[in-house]
Amino acid sequence: MPAKIITIGTASPKFATNQLDILDFMEQAYADKTEFRKLRVLARQSGIEKRYSVLPDFGLNLNPTFFKHQHSQPHVEDRMDQYKDNALLLALESIKTTLEPSGTAIEEITHLITVTCTGLHAPGLSAEVIRALGLRDDISHTAVNFMGCNAAFYAMKIADLIINSNEDAKVLIIAVELCTLHFQPKGNTDNLLSNTLFSDGAASVLLMSDKTSFPGLIIDGFYSLLLHEGWDLMGWDINPLSFEMILNSRVPAFIGKEVNRIFNRSAAHYSISSDDISHWAIHPGGKKILDEISLNLNLDKELLKNSYEVLRDYGNMSSPTILFVLKRFLESPGSPGEKLFSMGFGPGLSIETSLLSYG
User: Fold this and answer.
1) Total structural domains in the chain?
2) What is the pLDDT of residues 190-216, one digit of tens each?
3) Please, are residues 322 and 115 in contact by the beta-carbon 8 Å criterion?
4) What average pLDDT score do residues 135-139 get?
């Protein structure tokens, strides 16, 4: 019995800052003004107008509360304390906006899947959600941790497997990332790019079997590729100060070079062609990535409108970002049977795709 995405709820922290205003904070943080000038150019080319953080530091308030000292950055344990203080609250906000539209009561949820790569602790986010919502103590729960920007695809795969084996299952996925906790004013290209892109956010997804009468997006299948040639282009390292993002400037060009091969292998797996696809939901890892995909797949940028707009309005929130994009498709549904092709990118360089149908 195929799984169906019924509703998607999202949540953003209360501290929203215009992209160019964030530069005021960055200018103070970067001791080397040559590095800051590079950052300013990247920010202006990012396609992002606004980003969100659980911290007030990045706004026009030039008295930061967490990143207080230019040459003394918080240690990783301090950042994890901030994660524990904020991640659950953002998760609960997104859950509320997921369940209410469907009329689903919290006690009806049979399986819980949490997704995060920006904070790790035990018992962890899934256990916290169970306690906070009063879920039954024997609920099946799973954590997808440290998988990066395409981790929501892994969670949807698990949900699909659950529902295929139990058509009465109601699965709740929660993806929460607090990327801004890991800010470091380092001048290497990876950090400069990260500091212009990443943001905080949460998204929750309710999935049931397609026997339900609720409209939604039916999951037709998944397809994965590991592009070994891009092994060193994207990743996470943990150091004494933070989780440090590896985001090589060659990522957009590499994805552009490979995207036809990615799509052709995916299409063969799904037994479709590009003519069968009416809608495209691409993870907006950055404006240049979307531009390369549009160019090399010969897609009008209007077909990637939802991806460009999520990037513009929120930045790259890592794993919740593709769910913000899919939410827009749910809110302006297509005709029954129309196909939607979704794709995300993660460390490795790992590619995750999904084929969905309106139904």
Assistant:
1) 2
2) 778 889 999 999 999 999 999 998 999
3) no
4) 91
Residue 255, domain CATH:
3.40.47.10
**Would you tell me how many other CB atoms lie within 10 Å of the CB of residue 31?**
11
Q: How would you class 76 by CB atoms within 10 Å of its CB: exposed for 0-12, middle for 13-18, buried for 19 or more? A: middle
Same domain, 273 and 242: yes
| Residue 127 scores a pLDDT above 70 | yes
- Arithmetic mean of pLDDT, 280-299: 97
Model confidence pLDDT, tens digit, residues 138-178: 999 999 999 999 999 999 999 999 999 999 999 999 999 99
Q: Are strands 234-238 and 243-247 parallel, antiparallel or unpaired?
A: antiparallel
The residue segments making up the domain with residue 308 are 217-358
* Entry pTM: 0.96
Q: What are 230's two structure tokens?
A: 């891009």
- Same domain flag for 145 and 244: no
Residues 135 and 239 in one domain: no
